[in-house]
Task: structure prediction
Amino acid sequence: MRVAASCLISLFSVLIPLLSVRAQDTLRLTKAACEAKFLSENLLLLAEKLEIPKAEALVQQARLWPNPQFTLDQVNLWATRSQTGGNEVVPPLFGNFGKNRQFGAEIEQLILTARKRGKLIAVEQVKVDQSLAYFEELLRNLKLELRKDLIELQHLQLRETTYQKQLEAVRQLLAAYQRQVQEGHIPRSEYVRLKSLELEILKGMNDLEQQKNESQSAIRQWANIPADRFLIVSEDGFRIPTAALPKVNFPEVMEEAKQNRPDLRASLLDHTLALKQMDYEKARRTPDLTIKGTYDRNGNAMLNFFGLGASIDLPVFDRNQGNIRRAGIVAEQAQKVSDYQTRKVENEVSLAYRNLLSAYHIASRIEEGYEGALDNMLGAYTKNFSNRNLSMLEFLDFMNAYLDNKQTILETYKSVNERLQELNYAVGRDLL
Result:
């Protein structure tokens, strides 16, 4: 009774999630289609991409000249008889406008000297390049996470297929053994042992189902897929033939990484930005010039006075020394960080390259057709056991060996796929 109860519990634990899946919409995608959906609909990427036009808007702002400033002052709102002595002192400008009226007007224009405007534009342009590098770095990181989740889901689906083949074989035997037990030809203990094996397989499938749910949830988040969709990723490209393993030249890979890694480019741009900022701070030592034109009515000896003027700061005390010194220190810091990042890239590429070679070496030991031979042996062992040509111990030993071998093969292919993606990640583009 305990065996039967545990069997029913395990069956329900497997069937309930499967029934709920059928109630959902199933979405079948290839890895390429899923990645295309990720590139077009991932919300983090779309948000980060908006940083680029934001930076471009600041370049546009830096190109603009300072606005001229207009001032109107010294306007008398009225003129009393005591002020004018009862006489018309100031004639009108036209009509009756301006009669006995005093006012002054001035327009000023700031002129940036020492090419400050051009140097500020250069600073903002570097920030545009940084925004692009930051976007590419985010894309590089998210793409690695997505691809690893896709590889994991493929791996879990194939492991589930292995369990299903075992489960099908065991259930065929159980159907035959049940009749034999009832007729008294086979001891009930052998039937119970097969039933126990079925439960172990069902438990393994249930564990896989939970892992698949986690992988699907992550992929749905990356690709902005509705939560009620049950995702199935095609198994294309998971098993990499040994003949298809590419020959990778390490110096070429290292050079590719130095040219393509967005985080390295971002660190180099930090140094470039610091140098541009230092140029701008040095330019600020030169005072800016303000020119102005003035009109004054009835404010001095002349009734209508037109004048020109200019103003400039005298750099006696403040020659922007502190900001220039700070910019130099920032540039030195950025150079050291850039050198550190270069070494980091070299070490990451070296590690990814060596890990890939190691994974290739193991994969190359899997003979072509070996998996098919294992599946054929499963059928043969099941038939021989059914015909009583094998003992229970021999059959169970084979089932364990079959599962271990299949999982080892799938883990090997999974490792090769992940190492490939890690090398692509280390290089900064899809090298392989």
User: Anything to note?
Assistant: The beta strands are 25-29, 69-73, 103-111, 229-233, 289-297, 304-312.
